[in-house]
Design goal:
The structure is a homodimer of 145-residue chains. By secondary structure, chain A is α+β, with helices and mostly antiparallel strands. In chain A, 41% of the residues lie in helices and 23% in strands. The first copy, chain A, has a 3-stranded antiparallel β-sheet. In chain A, strands 5-4-6 form a 3-stranded mixed β-sheet, with helices on one face. The mean pLDDT of chain A is 93. The interface between A and B is large, with 36 and 36 residues. Chain A binds a DNA duplex (25 and 25 nucleotides) through helix 2 and helix 4.
Chain lengths: 145, 145
DNA sequence: CTTCATGCAAAACATTTGCAAAAAG
DNA sequence: CTTTTTGCAAATGTTTTGCATGAAG
């Protein structure tokens, strides 16, 4: 699960991207963060690589999305958020903190994909079905007895 | 389905909001648009009410969300989008145009809510389950034969 | 070498704020 | 009258752009 920068170079190559320190730093930050805004990536990545600008972070994130190395997520926060996991999975989305948490539920996925197996949606090319459990992180200790 | 401004005044009152020309114009625009960004609402609403500013549109939209007259939607567009329909329903979301379309599928809703009926999510207060069919509007006429 | 990626600083957007003036009830 | 709501213009925060420089292959 833990890639060193040699591994990362291979990954980038496999996705048809030149390997640069900036790209490695951004991807490493995303691996650590899981889900993150451009700014969060910039904060973390630029700690380990002083020669990194926000503009580059945006560039890199965009190129990663293009090749499918990252996925852009929807938010109700007017900000861009990325997901390092590109396989098909659900999310818990906290509207208070605008944070995401992977929520793996294969049974649900199966249910939904069965439901759509023979459905055709007129005039629409379906890419994926995005299920978000929207709510609020519970404050630690306030759990009902 | 078509409210005149007397009806709208009643609706606003019922939601505990003072009735103003601006609020009526914004809600009327939302009724017409269904799903819209602040800017879209401003464009349409200010056509019929010259004394309306963007700041007010934001104010009004926010107050409508507060009382539950509108719902904020997630987008991958770094912009705020509103939905005039607040009942529980799915959406088609076009990533190219950032447009929404209601997708009513009671069978799917039932399936999903049954699935979650007895599930508890640790540390999370669930508000709603948001299902988006993400893809692209098909270009007219490009339908496979 | 040649191409592509990065840094930089400015621009473009979208949204929010603070406060005085105006309107609602 | 009193309380909200609105308009205005400025400020904020995020993302994008253009172009010269620098690095990757």
């Amino acid at each position: 699960m833990k890639e060193n920068s040699t591994d990362l170079r291979k990954i980038l190559r496999r996705y048809g991207l030149k390997s640069t320190p900036q790209r490695i730093a951004v991807y490493t930050a995303m691996k650590e963060l899981g889900h993150a805004s451009a700014d969060m990536v910039y904060q973390l990545a630029s700690a380990g690589l002083t020669t990194l600008t926000v503009a580059t972070v945006y560039n890199v994130l965009e190129s990663f999305v293009q090749v499918g190395l990252l996925q852009r997520r929807m938010s109700s926060n007017n900000k861009m958020y990325m997901d390092v996991n590109t396989y098909n999975h659900c999310h818990l989305y906290c509207e208070e903190t605008n944070t995401y948490k992977d929520y793996d539920d294969p049974e649900l996925m199966l249910l939904i994909h069965d439901h759509f197996r023979n459905k055709r949606i007129r005039g629409f090319d379906l890419d994926r079905i995005d299920v978000q459990l929207v709510g609020r992180k519970r404050i630690a200790g306030s759990r009902a007895k």
